Amino acid sequence: MIQLTLPLSDAAVRDLHVGDPVSLHGVMVTGRDAAHKWLVETFVRKTRPPQDDDAQAAEALAPLLAGGAIYHCGPVVAGLETREYRFVAAGPTTSSREEPYQADVLQHFGVRAVIGKGGMGARTLAACQAGPAVYLHAIGGAATLIAQTVTRVVGVHKLSFGVPEALWVIEVLAFPAVVTMDAHGRSLHAEVEARSRAALDRLFTS
Amino acid sequence: MRDLTEAFLELIRRTSTDLPPDVERALEQARQAEQPGSAARGALDTILENVALARRGSSPICQDTGTPIFTVHHPTGWSTRELRRQIRQAVARATELAYLRPNAVEALSGRNSGDNLGDDSFPTIHFEEAEGETLTVDLMLKGGGCENVGAQYSLPHSGLGAGRDLEGVRRAALDAVHQAQGQGCAPGVLGIAIGGDRGSSFLASKAVLLRPLDDVNPDAALAELEARLMREANELGIGPMGFGGATTVLGVKARGMHRLPASYFVSVSYMCWAHRRRRMQVEGETVRYLDRSEA
């Protein structure tokens, strides 16, 4: 098990290879569909002018994203009324939906680790090589177990997106994941897809 | 009519936090089939540890508590309007208590209602009048990741070489599993409906997911199809989480329907490993909670 403390150095990222189990420590930011669309349209492509608290939120998030990790997760959160937030269930969501945005987010904000499930495509893999950055696969559905590694909810941005879609800043201790896309151009997902495609072709011709 | 809101709340709590025994058994078998030290084995270790933690702490197994889908069989004379009111109240309360994530998002504005109550399909409630004096309510929580990898095929399908027969159904189902890869949180369970129209077919493909994993289809041809698809889907080697491995599906459940002469739909609903389904029965003053596999 490789111990990783956030933020990550370029060297630490390049040391990671597909198949490595890792344990993450430090501060990360959750972000999924609404967050990725918002980040890219407002700050990268600038097709939408900043509104409400956008600029403020981006200013607070930028130092956390630089060298940091973005976690594709829509948590169940307790303490919403008192704002004494506590993560109750916090497994990963399917990452492929962020494929149109992820490479831009990696490059623009200097994110070094994407955490999610199901893997991502060729554009993100290329951005991981350029970054450098890695894709870390958390175990889908293991929500109670992962929530127990969240030691503190530091804050939340864009709660107007709703609880699952907000950007939660969390501190984790021993968050478990596996490297499935590395900074050297290797993707476990591309390999499994190719092998299962060959197996499917065999089943169709038999 | 008595107020069953508390009973519905308990049904939701159990469904979200306590995986049915047949599903847990299947995951344990899958764990033993993977090589020690492999990523697939590690994934199943984590999954089973999480299932135990969620049960002990009464917290959601998965943070995506999905669309709550209720199927209600009620005795003659019960008010479905009143049952709907109580179910919706229980769903809102379960959300406050963090057994459910607020999941109802208005499509046009993107606004999350915050209490899991949307239009009449959110939560989804199917009502059916039944013989006898027992109220039976099945609840299934179906998350978005697995819902997104469901697929519907209109046969014939030349790309797959799939004609209007069981061989065509086989090809469509295997293609759906291949397309899904690990994204529906494999190892999953396949619900397959053959026939119907687009709407009824998808509905039936979800309803068959209520069947216990270890039952045998009474229709011999479908029983054979289910067994074959289970074996062949696992030969694809996609494995737990799509890490590669021996178990890609935990079960396959299929049914045939009536169709129009012009239409031949094959609908595949994919259920993630966190196959959360529970049953509640109310008879007089007695409320029982059980799983279909124990019923």
Please tell me how large the radius of gyration of chain B is: 19 Å
Strand proportion of chain B? 15-25%
Biggest sheet details of chain B: 5 strands, mixed
Number of helices of chain A: 7
Structural class by sheet pairing and helices of chain B:
alpha+beta
Q: Give the count of helical stretches of chain B.
A: 8
**Which geometry of chain B do the CA atoms define?**
globular
Can you describe this structure?
The complex is a heterodimer of chains A (206) and B (295). Chain A has one domain: fumarase. Chain A has 7 helices and 9 strands, in the order E-H-E-H-H-E-E-E-H-E-H-E-H-E-E-H. In chain A, helix 1 links the parallel strand 1 and strand 2. Chain A is globular and about 60 Å long. Chain B is of the alpha+beta class and 295 residues long. Chain B contains 8 helices and 9 strands. In chain B, strand 1, helix 4 and strand 2 form a beta-alpha-beta unit. The radius of gyration of chain B is 19 Å and the shape is globular. The two termini of chain B are 25 Å apart. The mean pLDDT of chain B is 97.
List keywords for this structure.
heterodimer, A: 206 residues, alpha/beta, fumarase, B: 295 residues, 2 domains, five-stranded mixed beta sheet
In short:
The complex is a heterodimer of chains A (206) and B (295). Chain A has helices at residues 10-14, 33-44, 54-65, 99-109, 122-130, 143-147, 188-205; strands spanning 2-5, 21-30, 69-71, 76-78, 86-89, 113-116, 134-137, 150-157, 167-181.
Topology:
The complex is a heterodimer of chains A (206) and B (295).
Chain A: E1 2-5, H1 10-14, E2 21-30, H2 33-44, H3 54-65, E3 69-71, E4 76-78, E5 86-89, H4 99-109, E6 113-116, H5 122-130, E7 134-137, H6 143-147, E8 150-157, E9 167-181, H7 188-205
Chain B: H1 5-17, H2 21-33, H3 39-57, E1 67-74, H4 80-96, E2 124-129, E3 135-142, H5 144-148, E4 151-154, H6 166-180, E5 188-194, H7 198-207, H8 220-235, E6 249-256, E7 265-271, E8 276-283, E9 286-290
Parallel strand pairs in B: 1-2, 5-6
Antiparallel strand pairs in B: 1-3, 3-8, 4-7, 5-7, 8-9
Helix pairs in contact in B: 1-4, 2-3, 6-8
